[in-house]
């Protein structure tokens, strides 16, 4: 009967290692977050081709993120690997027409650029890459993601200037924007902030006045 298992939630179970091989191709939800799991991810995870939610945050996992995750990424809605010890580049090659809404990689040791295949994630709402070692320029191309509401890039090695957007409605639904503690130079273009429509609060006592809410630490801007 276990071959028909579709939902498995074992968070805060204090496992030290993965308790089984993953052979349930019908599994759509797997939550092993807040355990004590150590070492690399088992290759058997790549057998879960119907997986929609993979939640492994707050463990002691290490190694690289398997390249085979690209084989299951077309079905994934949420991938949460936050607060582990993964290193290397982000290898995920997201295909077109994927379902991903939440990608959490905060609190690892990931390096290299932000993968351009995220451009294919048209349903992405939350992108949290904070507290890694990602080295890249500001990914202005993310402005094209129509559902993106949370963008967290804090505490990386992002650099260069933040250019002006040429889109009529960039980051249309963005509500949380955190690029603090990087190595950007110059300043954020005023035009970019003014386009953050979902962060805008209209003061009805002064109808021409709009206020914006975002998180930027000026101490890490140069110029």
From TrEMBL:
Keyword flag Transmembrane helix: yes
A cellular component annotation (GO) from this entry: membrane
Compartment(s): Membrane
InterPro entries for this protein: Leu-rich_rpt, LRR_dom_sf, RLP23-like
This protein's UniProt keywords: Glycoprotein, Leucine-rich repeat, Membrane, Repeat, Signal, Transmembrane, Transmembrane helix
Chief site of localization: membrane
Top-level taxon of origin: Eukaryota
Protein name per the record: Uncharacterized protein
Its membrane topology: Single-pass type I membrane protein
Keyword Membrane: yes
Originating species: Cinchona calisaya
